[in-house]
């Protein structure tokens, strides 16, 4: 009887529990940091003032946190369906897909919020690198780093073709260029800045490096490769 696979199960389960615990602690810490703005947005959402929920940064952050259980349920349903179909790495693929969407869409929504005079203010472009970093401030820099952080973190886990730093850098920069172009074309009274592109791309790369050990590769594990049939003796 071969019991070679049984000793690895408890450590793997323990690792998953530890990662889940760390994720919950990180989420709790993030909620504690932004508890003030969330408490400001919550009464408007409860009273049905949807402009306060989806038209302000605080409201979008609150809605993102409220939707976390739904995102977890979708990831579970996708993983269960894939496991029934015999798909390998079902959980990794499902978490990566849901994580990319849930972690990126709210930031895109916030970046596309119009300024004070949308449609009437002239479109503004800043093409001098590093000039706008001074005016961003720490909060603005952190926000720009997070815009495509979820995409950079989960994309290499989902797609082996993106499992390299240069490709993630190109992906983050390309997506950021599209956002800045949309801001300019739609005249949202926002500054389309090259520094936003640079910081967005750096944020995607840093997040990708944090998930490097879980990147999906094209090579199969030795245990998954078909073994050649043994020639019959004699």
From TrEMBL:
Keywords for the protein's UniProt record, in alphabetical order: Membrane, Transmembrane, Transmembrane helix
- Organism domain of life: Bacteria
Segments passing through the bilayer: 57-79, 91-113, 133-156
Which ranges carry the VanZ-like domain? 109-210
Q: Which Pfam families did the record assign? A: VanZ
Q: What is this protein called?
A: Teicoplanin resistance protein VanZ
Source organism per entry reads: Streptomyces viridochromogenes
What lineage does the source organism belong to? Bacteria, Bacillati, Actinomycetota, Actinomycetes, Kitasatosporales
């Amino acid at each position: 009887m071969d019991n070679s696979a049984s000793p690895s199960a408890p450590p793997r389960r323990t690792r998953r529990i530890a990662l889940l615990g760390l994720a919950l602690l990180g989420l709790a810490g993030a909620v504690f940091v932004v508890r003030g703005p969330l408490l400001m947005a919550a009464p408007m959402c409860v009273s049905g003032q949807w402009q306060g929920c989806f038209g302000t940064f605080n409201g979008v952050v609150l809605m993102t946190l409220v939707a976390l259980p739904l995102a977890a349920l979708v990831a579970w349903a996708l993983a269960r369906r894939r496991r029934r179909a015999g798909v390998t790495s079902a959980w990794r693929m499902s978490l990566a897909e849901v994580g990319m969407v849930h972690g990126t869409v709210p930031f895109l929504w916030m970046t596309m919020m119009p300024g004070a005079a949308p449609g009437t203010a002239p479109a503004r472009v800043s093409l001098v690198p590093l000039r706008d970093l001074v005016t961003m401030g720490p909060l603005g820099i952190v926000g720009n780093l997070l815009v495509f952080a979820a995409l950079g973190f989960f994309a290499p886990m989902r797609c082996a073709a993106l499992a390299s730093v240069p490709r993630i850098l190109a992906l983050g920069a390309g997506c950021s260029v599209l956002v800045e172009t949309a801001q300019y074309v739609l005249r949202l009274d926002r500054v389309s800045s090259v520094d936003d592109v640079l910081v967005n791309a750096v944020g995607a790369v840093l997040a990708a490096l944090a998930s490097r050990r879980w990147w999906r590769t094209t090579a199969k594990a030795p245990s998954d490769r078909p073994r050649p049939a043994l020639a019959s003796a004699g």
